[in-house]
Each structure stands twice: as structure tokens, then as C-alpha cells.
Amino acid sequence: MTLPKRIFDVLVAFGLGILLMPLILAVAAAILIRDGGPVLYRSERMKTASQGFQLWKFRTMKPAADDRGVSGGDKADRVTETGRVLRRYRLDELPQLWNILRGDISFVGPRPPLRRYVEKFPDLYARVLHSRPGITGMATLAFHRREEELLAPCRTADETEAVYCRRCVPRKARLDLIYAGKRTLCSDVKLMFATVFRRISLH
After folding, report:
1. What pLDDT is recorded for position 68?
2. Measured between alpha carbons, how far is 179 from 139 in angstroms, rounded to an integer?
3. Distance of alpha carbon 10 from alpha carbon 17, whole angstroms
4. Which of 27, 112, 125, 155 would bridge with 118, disulfide CB 3.0–4.6 Å?
């Protein structure tokens, strides 16, 4: 990550953290009142091909001891009513401002993968994670809805895993690598605005 990009991330994350603090507290209170604790959910993700970190989100699902892999149709019945609203507007990702301040992720970059996928596709992710992972990116904007459509019909964890590995991982990686080859701070800002206005324009 370049120094200007890191400075930009820190300044924007700090400013948004202050500006959105009432919203963050309101979301936390809504989860606690409607669904109980825990309010936050953490998951190990990878910021390089060998280095993991704890990614923070607002909890949107009922806890399960045997949880593994990405979310598909097999986990749909675990998503809470509050969680559906948070996911719809990506409010569940607000705690990731803390991950940005820590330097775990950036605003724009490939979505940080679970360790299981990095270990399954080491050569691919060695290239993808040459860029700092981010909250949004080209693959997130261009493929997120398609990924949801592909995974929604899956009824078991094994089916979700197979579809994700076969049909999602290669396509997202291709988009991430294309963007990495031409990214600038200006293009990152455009993607951030595109992410916000895409969500607003849909509702």
C-alpha cells in the first residue's frame, strides 16, 4: 500500500467513525435489543497469503458452532430480521472502520478471503493479496449480486463450497487482478462513491 493511500484511508476512516458514531451506536443497540448478544461478529480473514487478522462486523446471523465457509442458501434461515436490513444497506460492515484504522484492510481492494480459500488456491491468492484487501472493489461491485444468485439455491455447506470455489473465486480474482493493474487513488475514490450510490439507487 502506498503512503498516500494509507493516509487517505486513515483520515477518511477516522472522519467517518466520528460522523457515523450515532448510527453505529444505534445499530449496536438494535441488535442487542432485538437479537441479544453478541453484537459483533469476528472472523479470521487473510490480508496477505500468509498473514491473517480478525475482521469485525455487526452480527447478522444466529450463532452456530459448526459454521464454516461462505454464506449461501444453506445459511439463509440463520439470518436475523435485523441482519437482513443491515446486509441490505451494508451497515453490518461499519465496524470495519476499525480494521482500516489498524491497517488490516483498505477502503478499496479485493475482499479479504477466509484462510481455507487461500490454502485451497495458494498461487491465485498470492497474486490477489499482493494488493491490500478492502471493503469494496471492482469485484464487489461487478460480481456481488451474481455471487448471491449463484449461492442462494445451495442447500448444504458442501454444495455452497463447491459452487463458490468453481464459479465465484476465479471470476472475482480475475476482476481484482485487472483492477490492481490500473488502480489509482482517484479510481479508488470513484469506486467508493459507486458503492454508496449503488446501494442508494437500489432502494
Report:
1. 84
2. 9
3. 10
4. 125
Please name the residue that has the C-alpha cell 456481488.
144
* CA pair distance 165, 158, nearest whole angstrom: 11
Q: Please compute the mean of the pLDDT values over residues 117-131 and round it to a whole number.
A: 97
188 contact partners, CB below 8 Å, separation of at least 6: 5, 8, 106, 107, 108
Burial of residue 51 (CB within 10 Å: 0-12, 13-18, 19+) is: exposed
60 touches 85 (CB < 8 A): no
Confidence (pLDDT) at 1: 83
Cis peptide before 122 (omega within 30 of 0): no
pLDDT tens digits for range 53-71 = 999 999 999 988 778 889 9
Q: What are phi and psi of 38, to 5 degrees?
A: -75, 155
- Dihedral pair phi/psi, residue 63, rounded to 5°: -60, 150
- The cell for 25 is 451506536
Question: Which grid coordinates are listed for 125?
Answer: 491468492
Specify the pTM: 0.91
- Please return the burial class of 83, using the count of CB atoms within 10 Å of its CB with bins 0-12, 13-18 and 19+: buried
Residues 116-138 have a mean pLDDT of 96
DSSP-derived pairing of the beta strands 52-58 and 40-46: antiparallel
Which pLDDT value is given to residue 66? 79
Cell numbers at 84, concatenated: 437482513
